[in-house]
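Weekly structure sync - notes
Attendees: PM, LS, DV (DV joined late)
Agenda: review two folding runs queued last week.

Item 1: First target. Sequence and structure tokens pasted below for the record.
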Amino acid sequence: MRDSVRKAGQRLMVGFQGHEASADVKKMIRDYGAGSVILFARNVASPEQVAELVRELQGEARDAGQDLPLLVAVDQEGGRVARMRAPWTEWPPMRAVGRHGSEDVARKVGEALAAELHACGIRLDFAPIMDVDTNPKNPIIGDRSFGSDPDLVGRLGAAMIRGLQENGVAACAKHFPGHGDTDVDSHLELPTIEHSRARLEEVELPPFRKAIEAGVASIMTAHVVVRELDASVPATLSPRVIDGLLRRELKYDGVIVTDDLEMKAVAKHWAPGPSAVLAAQAGCDLLPVCATHDMQVAALEGLVKAVESGGISWKAMDAACARVRRLKERFVLPWRDPDPKAARAAAGATERVALARSIAEQAGMAV
């Protein structure tokens, strides 16, 4: 495998259909060096099945000669964004945790999520939401957010990050630089935010500063145009937002991961090859293409052509791969294939179900 293909593959995160490793995902791992996989509800049937699926995927990576295990990720926030439901613990929306206002409770939720995910071999949780819920018309954030107070969101998010990461699962603060005050679903259209820099500094950015202080392993970008920062492209594709603001001003040195490049906010305007290249040029490290095999191949080929032609420097490619590698070394090594029996035993443990119910009841919300 050419060095450019291998390195591009380590920056790609792929999704697929089915409860077993599909021919397409095996091809991405084997022939294109894809180093990360994301699971959705379509891939999840039971704790034993998820553990076996992760074992199968990791076996493909080993057989392909990848020198590090795959990074397997999932969106497991609680509430309506939870890919793994009963028999795993079903959590209320994070708004319920916000109503408690307790950092201890938020940390315990992170610890509980980590215990169940780790037992299945999942080492990256795309949580917590660090968006501040300031727009009641927002169709995508709402009760996924801890609340409308930036300090509360920052404190509880940082506590949840620590709970996850101190128990072996990388956290992801999302969606930078803030998706809370939009009235458009970025899965369908490209939202725009009109706020001044002063407002961003007061509301949207403080929770991400707290996440960085807490040592969050990854930060996910928003497919949102923030006119004050860059009126021409969404944050995901903007060097001003990603390299300028997040890397240089906020001094973040962890993994920057894009939201799914198949979401319409990006995919309606840029083909997968160009969008992957623009995201990489902006400073993003890890690029999820979550469903379509042809788009995954196009994204990878776009990265390969860009690095071989000088559109992406080898130095930048190596730096991005090094950040992904550090995350893997911290959270994936030493690797042991998950035990299906242990995965079942960890799912929905009595004390975790009781905690989820207690949080929901005290907040007056349903699990």
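Item 2: Second target, run right after the first with the same settings.
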Amino acid sequence: MIIESSKQVSRNHLFKRFPIPTNFGVTKESRVDRGKAWPVPAGATRTKSFEIYRYDPDSGRGPHVDTFEVDLDDCGPMVLDALIWIKSKVDSTLTFRRSCREGVCGSCAMNMDGTNWLACTRFISEMESPARIYPLANMKIIKDLVADQTHVFAQYAAIEPWLQSKTPTPERERRQSVEERSQIDGYYECILCFCCTSGCPSHWWNGNRFLGPAVLLQAWRWLTDSRDEAAEERLDKLEDPFRLYRCHTILNCTRTCPKGLNPGKAIAHIKKTMIERQS
């Protein structure tokens, strides 16, 4: 199923019926402890609890979860509004990324109630109680909810995501028909939030070599663009046992894309093109 709204994200998770302890099988350094519980704001009549992952490498303390009580009557409707409210009125040390607040920049991608999404497009009313906020998985944590995306952006740069041409530059633009332009629909809209890559088990296992769904979707975006003239060179760089073929079509990527895109379909198109050029 293609997810078009956060309301479509499944609220049924296997491990809620058969829970595994939070710190099961992890090292001492990675154990997530209980942190501080902040009191209910004075005079608040309608509140919601938020359990938020905290980690500050400079403090010498391991990761822990702080509990905040958010006054819903003094806060906007989105999870990002709640985080800004907490930072402004409760704990100014809370750290997270945000920018556009319109689901365009991808900065506020994080894990909310077990699902990767954008904090600016997830309604507080859709969250469980308590709401659980964690950073994107499978990435090093810089501080609190800020994940280090150096590696995934380096993988993105590896596919050379720009128009490459061999013919002389025209006097005006490189023209496309309406049909040719439609071929990149569903791919150019990717905002590089990396919700899909963070949720991809294949990237968990082989993230050093497997490019991941976000990057491969972008690779197909350029392969299918009629103006690009470097398809063979692009395919040669993807022809690798790990870069492309570690995808096992689990489709976590498609289920967690906040823009409703289908990285799994893009990867399938690349694989099909690989086979066709060999025949």
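Discussion on item 2: The beta strands are 33-37, 47-54, 64-71, 109-112, 115-118, 131-134, 141-143, 146-147.
Action: LS to circulate a short write-up before next sync.
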